ATP-dependent dethiobiotin synthetase BioD
Amino acid sequence: MRGFFITGTDTEIGKTCITAGLTHKLTQQGLRVTPIKSLAAGQERVEGVWINEDVQQLHAAQTIGMRPEQVGPLQFRAACAPHIAAAAEGRPIERAPLLAAIRASAALGDLALVEGVGGFRVPLCAGFDTADLAVELALPVLLVVGLRLGCINHALLTAEAIRARGLTLAGWVANTVDASMPHVTDNLAALDAALAAPSWGHVPRLPIPSAVAVAAHLTPPSFSPVLESSL
C-alpha cells in the first residue's frame, strides 16, 4: 500500500478540502489517486439517498471510477465522534473489516490518500483509535495545520505524537481557518522551523474551496507513476 495518511491538528480544519486538492494535483502528475475517507460521521438524506458531504467531495475529486462506498467505506448518520455514532446505530467499528476496506480501496490506484477523522487521536473502539489506524496502515503522515490562534502548539503536539509511534511526518499543509488571524507569516515561519518537515503549501481562505481551487495552492513532491518503494 502506497500513499499518505492525512491527519489534522483538530476537527473542522479542512482535511477533506486538502485531500481533495491533493487528489486533483497528484492526478495531474499522471497518478491514479484513491482518496479514502476512512470513517465519516454525519449524513443527510438527498433524493432518498443518505450521503456524507466529505465523501461526496472526495468522490468528485477522483477520476478513476471509484464508487462512493469505496471512497467512504464506513459512514454513520450522526455528526459526532465516530464511536458515539457507531453505538447509536448499533454498528460497532471493527478494526479488521475497516482496515480491509481501506486497503481494498487503496488497491484500485497508484497512490492512496487516506484521511483520518478529527485530530490524530480519536477513539474508534476499545483499544483502537485513529493513531492506531495510522500505525496499522504504516503510511507516511501529512499534517493539515488549521491556521488559527493556538495552531503552533496543536501542530507540535500532533507531530510529536506521530513520531512517537514510529511514523514519518512526510510534510504539512497550512490551511487558513481564521481569515483574520494576525502574524500569519511569523506563525508559518515558526511552524516551518519547529515541525522539521517540508511544507506542501499554504491554502488561503477561499470563497469556494473546490479541489481545483485548493490544488492551486499546494506544492507536493513530484511522484513518478511508478512510485518509489520507500513511499
Observations:
- The first strand starts at residue 3 and ends at 8.
